[in-house]
Amino acid sequence: MPSCVPLPLLEPCFLVEFPDVAVSHSPSDSQNGVPSKIMDDTDDDWKRQKREIIDKFFYEKVPENLSSGLSSTSACNEVSCIQFAKTISGTDDIAAVDNQGSHSFTVSSPRLGIVVQFRLKPLRLDTIRRANEIYGNLPKPYAESSWTKSAKATVRRLMNNTSLRDTAPELYNVIGSHYPQLHLLDTLPAVLTHHDFASVNILVDDSGHLTGVIDFDEAAVEAFGMCVWGLYECFFGSMDDGKWSFYDVPADDDSGRTIREVLEQTFWESLWTHASPNLYREEAESAVKISLSIEYGER
């Protein structure tokens, strides 16, 4: 039998642990009784990708992680996980969500607003707790493995990448221009940073209002601004026929700007309007953009 471990700061969530496979279970966030849903794109490409991710999880990653030696087809497969989720949730209204993580399998009940996630490894509860404390104390110093600590090495590696220089000279020049300014990272506050701040990890209700952010278990303390790359990658452009591009069509506001430029300016103006009064835009703007570039380079 699996063991149920309470998560005090996420009640009424609980964690169900199997040998080398973990399941997290919780009601999803909601507003006015409307369950949150993961922002997703339901076109054919996304559906194919969803199936590929699920198959890879059960036929490659699960067998590699099960210490019992049981095969995924006989002990832990998609059908058995869905059935288990139905049993612990007390409902047959269970189906795989549209956007799957690469190291987990997630199902939900839209009617009950419940999410059940089957994980290769248990959640890092220490990080989850830190994410829920809303920075009650000063964050811990940067870990040696943090992207902030490794910023100089990252930029140096990219500058030595001749393929990058030849295929993307504009990007290469931007990276090179940041190297002399890396010391500015030390002027930014250290904050708990989501390392995968993408649309698949953002929860909204039916009116589009934000209700939560998930997948904090890989978060780490970094210089402020290192998760902003997700906005550029997920909200300022889109994937079409396997090629990603910005929303560079004209905006319908007689300003002569593109849709991307309108979104980008709106974001930065809102960020600095709502940032801590101790963070002065004139002093921090360059440092934040360097922080953004370092995070994107790590991707």
Please give a structural write-up:
This protein is α+β, with helices and mostly antiparallel strands and 299 residues long. The chain has helices at 44-65, 78-89, 125-132, 151-159, 162-167, 169-178, 229-235, 259-274, 281-298, and strands spanning 3-6, 14-18, 21-27, 30-31, 34-35, 37-38, 95-96, 104-109, 114-119, 190-193, 202-204, 210-213, 220-223, 237-240, 243-246. It has nine helices and 15 strands. It has a six-stranded antiparallel β-sheet. A hairpin with a 4-residue loop joins strand 8 (104-109) and strand 9. Helix 4 (151-159) runs antiparallel to helix 6.
Beta fraction: 15-25%
Count of helix runs: 9
Number of strands: 15
Report Rg: 21 Å
Structural class: alpha+beta
Unreliable stretches: 1-42, 134-139
Largest sheet: 6 strands, antiparallel
Strand order of the largest sheet: 1-2-3-9-8-7
SSE run: EEEEEEHHEEEHHHHEEEEHEEHH
General shape: globular
Query: What is the percent of helical residues?
Result: 25-40%
How widely separated are the two ends? 39 Å
Q: What does the average pLDDT come to?
A: 73
